UniProtKB/TrEMBL annotation:
Name assigned to this protein: Regulatory protein VirG
Domain Response regulatory: 13-126
The entry's DNA-binding region: 141-241
Parts of the chain that traverse the membrane: none
GO cellular component, one term: protein-DNA complex
Main location: cytoplasm
Length: 248
């Protein structure tokens, strides 16, 4: 059905932004076999047109595109929303992976990739980003509050002290939720990787540090001198805020 010119559907809606038609077709057909609604765009202009017509649940974004490249597109998308983004690239260096994470990508897969693994990562991101409409709500909705901030684990929303909603990637939200649930405790990088699956972008512990840095940019008054989210030398990280769990 349609609503206000936008196509509405219950299936997970995936947008593949990939200029290699063969790769795009293979991924599209495989995801459709999994019951997903899939659209393909060859560049940023095509992506924008598709997004005006449909509200997507996840974007698979190639880095090397004609015109605007994938890094620029990711930065632009992240500046206006929190849709999960999985980046594809033929460049396998850790530097490029970290750049992708720093600008807001949720996961990073290098070519050539194993199709089954790519689909598993897409499903994993979708599971962690689904909103209340796809879940059974408990009778009482619990919220976490600290220093005027509000974290809603069910709707996966974060509001700052001025009540403005703060866009966060899947991993940023998972990290914040883990810290709220463990306020005052030191969490190691290994524990955070296990909780958030943030290591999926590659076998690099630095992926957690990148997500922490982005989270500080959104939470701290001065990210260079963090007060809420502190580094514990040789330990990990600790969330120092006094967190209250309340009814919604």
């Amino acid at each position: 059905m349609e609503n206000g010119g936008r196509v509405m559907s219950d299936e997970p809606k995936i947008l593949i932004v990939e200029d290699d038609a063969q790769i795009a077709d293979i991924v599209r057909d495989s995801l459709r076999e999994q019951g997903m609604l899939v659209e393909v765009a060859a560049d940023g202009i095509g992506m924008d047109a598709k997004m005006r017509a449909l509200d997507f649940d996840l974007i698979v974004l190639d880095v090397m595109l004609p015109g605007e490249d994938g890094f620029s597109i990711c930065r632009r998308l992240r500046g206006s929303g929190d849709i999960p983004i999985l980046m594809l690239t033929s460049v396998s260096s850790d530097i490029d992976r970290v750049v992708g994470l720093e600008i807001g990508a949720d996961d990073y897969v290098t070519k050539p990739f194993v199709l089954r693994e790519l689909i598993a990562r897409i499903k994993g991101l979708l599971r962690r980003s689904r909103l209340t409409s796809s879940r059974v709500e408990s009778p009482r909705k619990r919220l976490f509050r600290f220093d005027g901030w509000r974290v809603d684990p069910i709707r996966r929303q974060v509001h700052d002290p001025s009540h403005a909603r703060i866009a966060m990637t899947t991993h940023e939200f998972d990290l914040l939720l883990a810290f709220c649930q463990n306020a005052g405790r030191v969490l190691t990088r290994e524990q955070l990787l296990a909780v958030t699956h943030a290591g999926l972008a590659g076998p690099i512990e630095r992926s957690i540090d990148v997500h922490i840095s982005r989270l500080r940019q959104k939470l701290e008054v001065d990210p260079r001198d963090p007060v809420l989210l502190k580094t514990v030398r040789l330990g990990g990280y600790i969330f120092t805020a006094v967190v209250e769990e309340t009814d919604g």
